[in-house]
Fold this protein.
Amino acid sequence: MHFIFNGFFLLAAIKWGDWRRWKEYYSTILFFIIGDLLKNFLLYNHWMWTYQETIFAEGILQNHTIISLMIMFIVYPSTILIYLGRFPHVRWKQMLWIGLWVSLYLGVEYINLNYLHLIRHHNGWNIQWSLIFNIIMFIMLRLHIKKPILAWALSFVWILLLLKMFHVPIDKMK
């Protein structure tokens, strides 16, 4: 099933992505991927969520790491090419655009969590935290393209807050 979700994102990027300006978005794509790699590294022994394959392709998508890497290299660049490539100029449309992407990511997670069982939450993480996380994530992605140093600084503070709120012990970090 993860192949299908990733395929949808890739097809959407082919159709609606701003491929002409991909070099402009490249650093934000890396910012997005590095954030997820950092999360996977820091929380290796104290997961907030894990991916699993339950429908088909269990032989290929055997664990969280493989699925997560696939998402990083297909879904994240696809998201950036569409999200930033079509980001509106009018403030109220920007809010709606962010809301649309937050809703899309949250909807996929909700379906994967409750119906397809492709994701599991751990250590106090829940769908409400995913909502908050997605709102901040999509704001940070937009901020990164405009003011990357500020986005990195605010993301660092956000990571520290999450580590504190979820009581992640230092000895649980890899």
Notes: The mean pLDDT is 94. Residues 2-172 form one domain. The chain has six helices and two strands.
